[in-house]
Amino acid sequence: MFLGFQLLFLLLISPFIIGIFLYGIKRKTEFMGKAILTFYAFGISFIIIMLIIGILGKKKVLEKSDFYGEYTIDRNYFSGKQADWQYNNFRFEIKENDSMYFYVTDGEIINETYKGTISTLVPYKSARLVIEMKNPNHHILTSNPTIYREAWGFFMVFKSPKFNNMYFRKAEWKIIE
Length: 177
Known about the structure:
Elements: H1 2-26, H2 31-56, E1 69-73, H3 81-89, E2 90-94, E3 99-106, E4 109-121, E5 128-133, E6 146-149, E7 154-160, E8 164-170
Antiparallel strand pairs: 1-2, 1-8, 2-3, 3-4, 4-5, 6-7, 7-8
Helix pairs in contact: 1-2
């Protein structure tokens, strides 16, 4: 059906569109020619703007290498004392050898480290993260994160039985003031 519509457009509609455009060029000094060319300029501008919005708004397709790095609590998603406390007490790191280190901290001081490994599922368009932690495990890591892709990056949401949803974003930990 879609192929039929394309052929119909190519054979019947596109010559009509080109013919009107050529008529507008021939009569560019008259009112009707100016109106036709203005309509075409708006139409082409609209198509270009929609293409740019589509390209810029396209979600990032993740690969395994995109997950490597340091992650901290995203304090911009939910701000306040609880987010600041979580930021100062939990962070993790995924290294290029597919190892994961989850840190329970008190600011700069690391109190506990939970170790594990990561892998990805790739039967989807974008890779999905699978975490396997060694026992004992931390309650934040009882399930795999949900990954929310954005145009320029992504963030992970862990479902904690104690804190509910915890939002992590790739970022280096810094002292908050």
